[in-house]
Amino acid sequence: MTTKRDYLKIADLSAAEYAGLFRRAKELKAARKSRLMVRTLAGRTLVMIFEKHSTRTRLSFEAAMVQLGGLCIDLSASNSQMSRGEPLPDTARVVGRYCDVVMMRTFGDARIEEFSKFCDVPVINGLTDGGHPVQILTDLFTIEERLGTVKGKTLAFIGDTASNMGRSFVEAASVFDYQLRLASPAGYHPAAAVVAHSPRHVTLLRDPKEAVAGADVVITDVWTSMGQEAESAQRLKDLGGYQVDAALMRGAAPHAVFLHCLPAHRGEEVTGEVIDAPTSAVWDEAENRLHVQKALLEYVVLENEKRSAR
Ligand code: CP
Ligand code: NVA
């Protein structure tokens, strides 16, 4: 009977654990800036499994593990036995025998849950259709860097708020105690079951101007997420009025920060003027994946070792 703890969704850690994680991420960021070596994961191995494309997640997890003294193995589904029909439970059982932690990017949440069920080591969600928790943690950490705290702030998410990004932002709202306004056309808001995670913290709106009015943070995501390519033309049509441009940003608070998890499509969900402006925190946001995930890897791996030693 395994006692491991995964990180598959926002609810898998408590507010107190997140506070500790952010403190540690800040320390690790400072250590890297002053070229101080931190080797807390020496001798440990991370296996990364990608069933969707990635730039930042692949780079930041591998860099995090190696900089902490560990080793990283990239098992892409397309060139392993996974794409030749080896059952997922068999792969999961084997992977767990070689490493200390797994990061998986896949489609349905049921798939990562099934993998985790058969894998003896903790599994971290590196993006599924249902959420992108490591990105949301990084975004909240970036907001705290820029604005001091995220508690009590108003975040406006514009566009396809039913995306994995939108869903994880909803789940995190009650844990981190911020107000989240979601502006989307009909059919592009998260389902009621998702909103039920944070009913007092989330407002569903149609009008992007209403959503950004006085907001501290303005966020968007691509209109066509990975796996939705066949719907791309329809999505472009439906979401056409939801571009974050300079005029929309002017409605937000004067100190407002713009976030986008990237990759971005300039001219679709955001204009070049907004994403390349000084109010945009997207490059810090991308960098912070490294620091936040180091803190998360340390926490998950070392906590698992303590639990299994008991
Ligand atoms: N933001 C993010 O997860 O980027 P990648 O898809 O490049 O990993
Ligand atoms: N919603 C996007 C996020 C990419 C990091 C997607 O799933 O493609």
Structural description of this entry:
The chain is α/β, with parallel strands linked by helices and 310 residues long. The chain folds into 2 domains: 10-129 and 289-309, Aspartate/ornithine carbamoyltransferase (Rossmann fold, 3-Layer(aba) Sandwich), CATH 3.40.50.1370; 133-279, Aspartate/ornithine carbamoyltransferase (Rossmann fold), CATH 3.40.50. The chain contains 12 helices and 9 strands. The longest helix has 28 residues, at 282-309. The radius of gyration is 19 Å and the shape is globular. 46% of the residues are buried. The model has no long low-confidence stretch (mean pLDDT 97). Residues 54-57, 127, 135, 261-263 line the site of phosphoric acid mono(formamide)ester.
Brief synopsis:
This protein is an alpha/beta fold and 310 residues long. The chain contains twelve helices and nine strands.
Chain-wise SSE layout:
Layout: H1 15-33, E1 45-50, H2 56-67, E2 71-76, H3 88-98, E3 101-105, H4 109-118, E4 123-125, H5 133-147, E5 154-158, H6 164-176, E6 179-183, H7 192-195, E7 202-205, H8 208-212, E8 217-220, H9 232-238, H10 246-250, E9 257-260, H11 272-275, H12 282-309
Parallel strand pairs: 1-2, 1-3, 3-4, 5-6, 5-8, 6-7, 8-9
Bound molecules: phosphoric acid mono(formamide)ester and norvaline (NVA).
Gyration radius, rounded: 19 Å
Q: Name the helicity range.
A: 40-55%
Quickly name the level 1 CATH class of the largest domain: Alpha Beta
Assembly category: single chain
CATH architecture descriptor text of the largest domain? 3-Layer(aba) Sandwich
Low-confidence spans: none
Please state the average pLDDT score: 97
